[in-house]
Amino acid sequence: LDKSNVLLIGPTGCGKTLFARTLAKLISVPLVIADATSLTQAGYVGEDVESVLHKLLQAAGGNLALAQQGIVYLDEVDKIARRATAGSGFRDVSGEGVQQGLLKMLEGSVVNVPEKGGRKNPRNEYVQVDTTNILFICGGAFSGLDKVIEERLAVKQIGFGAAARPDSAALAAQVDREQPTVDDLVSFGFLPEFLGRFPVLAKLHSLGEKELVHVLSRPRSALLKQYARLFLAEGLDLRFSQGALETIARKALERHTGARSLRSIVEGLLTQPMYHAPEWARAGTEVVLVDTVCARDGRPPVLLSRDDFYGDGACGPVDAEEMRGVFGEAREGKAQAAPVSESAEDADPDAEEDQAATS
Questions:
Q1: Is 0.85 topped by the overall pTM?
Q2: When comparing pLDDT for 145 and 162, which is higher?
Q3: Which tens digits make up the pLDDT trace of 32-65?
Q4: Within the chain, how many helices (H) and strands (E) appear?
Q5: Sheet holding 302-304, edge to edge
Q6: Backbone phi, then psi, for 143, in 5-degree steps?
Q7: What DSSP letter does each residue of 89-137 carry, written as one string?
Q8: Whole-angstrom Cα distance, residue 114 to residue 237?
Q9: Which residues of 256-280 are buried (b: 16+ CB within 10 A; e: fewer)?
C-alpha cells in the first residue's frame, strides 16, 4: 500500500498538532514535529530539509527500519509559501526553495542524511533513509487564504442573467464552508508539484463553545485538572460551575486563537486565588468555587466548607451558581490580612518628639 500525505488547513488552536501526535501514539510509530519556518534551501543559513529526517532517526532511537515507518509533521507549512518579491531579483531561499527541496522527500526516495546531524559536508558520514513509507503531515493556519477563496467566489457578473452578488455576511459564511482547491493554494504561493504530493487535503474548522468547554474539563490532562492539583497541594478543592466554563469559552472565542487562549484566561482568573490559597486554607476554607460572576466580572471566588458545597450544611443542597447569593459576599475570597496601625505603646518616642518640634 502506498502512503497518502496529508495537508491540514485550519486556524490556530484547533488541534492540528494534537491530531498528528495522537495518531502516532495510536499506531505506535515514531513521530517528529518540525517547524517549517527554520528550513532553508541547501547552501544557505538555516536547517536543510534533511534535518527533519535526522530528528526522526533520533525519535526512533537510531533504529533505521522503525524510522522509515514513522510520521513527520511539518508545522507552519504556510510560512514557506512563495514570497511576493521572489520574482524581482531575490532568491526565495526560505519559501519556494524549501518547497523544491521537499519534493523528492515527500514523494518517496532515498535521502542521504548526515549521521551526526547538521549541514551537509563531503567529509561527513551519511545514513540512507528511504522515505517511501514515511507519512508526511503538513499543517498551517494559512492566514489570508480566505481572501483568495472570497475572490474566487465573488466573481462579478454583468448582464440581465447575472446572479445577484451575496452580501458580506452570506459570503463570509460561504467562504468558511468552502473547501480550498489546488488553484487557491497555488494563488496563495505554493508550487503545483508540491501540492501534488498531498493527495489528502483537509480543512479544519475553529473550535466552538462546546468544544472549548470539553477541552477545559474532560481530557486526562485538562487545564482545570492541572490547576486543581495546584490547589490540592494547599488542601483546597477547586471547583468551577458550568456557567463559569461557558463564560471562559466565550472569552476564548473572542480572542480568535482557539484553545491556546484558554490557559491565559484561566491564569488571569486564578493568579490572585493561588497567591491567597495558603491563607484561605489556614482560615478553614475547604472548597474554592469559581462561578459565573467570578469568570465574567473578575470578582473573587466563593470560599466554602465541604458541607456547604455538597449540601450537607444548614442550607441544604444549593446550586453552584446560587451559592454566592446564599452565603453572601462575606464568603468571597478576599485577602484576610489588613494593614495594622501602630498602637500608642509601640509608637517611636523620637518620632513623636520630632513631630512635636515640627509643629
A1: no
A2: 145
A3: 999 998 888 765 767 888 889 999 999 999 999 9
A4: 16, 10
A5: 237-240, 287-290, 302-304
A6: -65, 125
A7: T---TTTHHHHHHHHHHHH--EEEEETT-SS--TTS-EEEEE-TT-EEE
A8: 53
A9: eebbebbeebbeebbeebbebbeeb
